[in-house]
Amino acid sequence: xxxxxxxGKYYITHSKTGAVMKVLDIExxxxxxxxxKAILQKxxxxxxxxxxxxxxxxxxxxxxxxxxxxxxxxxxxxxxKAIYQKTDGVCYLCGGDITFGSFEIEHRMPKSKGxxxxxxxxxxxxxxxxxxxxxxxxxxxxxxxxxxxxYKMDKRHEDKLSWKIVHKMLNKMI
Length: 174
Ligand SMILES: [Zn+2]
Hints:
It comes from Parablautia muri. The protein is of the alpha+beta class. It has helices at about 35-45, 55-70, 75-85, 125-135, 140-155, 160-174, and strands at about 5, 10-15, 20-25, 55, 105, 120-125. The strands form 3 sheets. It has a two-stranded antiparallel sheet. The structure holds zinc ion. The site of zinc ion has 7 residues, from loops.
């Protein structure tokens, strides 16, 4: 465990002569051992420490380990087939065609939000949609997509009367 000062890129340390300096390598960062001491350092040379914040490397390590533990489940060919057939070969988010060889498995309720690997939570998805939805709640995602759609259409057709009418109708439906 180490309490260090960083601005996200550089780390604060001391040279052999005792001068405060910044280094790129976290291994060379000075360990202040306590938050109080790190604050003291920041206050001593506020100019050099401007933009620097205190980081507990232990917390970072723990987070890192947690990330590593959350391994993605490997699906069998039969499982992939069952998921693919749920939508007859189209992305469940955008309706675009997806091939069996390239489709991705999307957790409707994200795993990070408590979603499981059970079949009823898994849907076939294109890469782009999968990346876009990421680990957003399904309802939040749908709302965001609607918002993006309305905003884009507004920008494109803001002067057209026909769009104004459609927009009014959509507002009531969404
Ligand atoms: Zn899609």
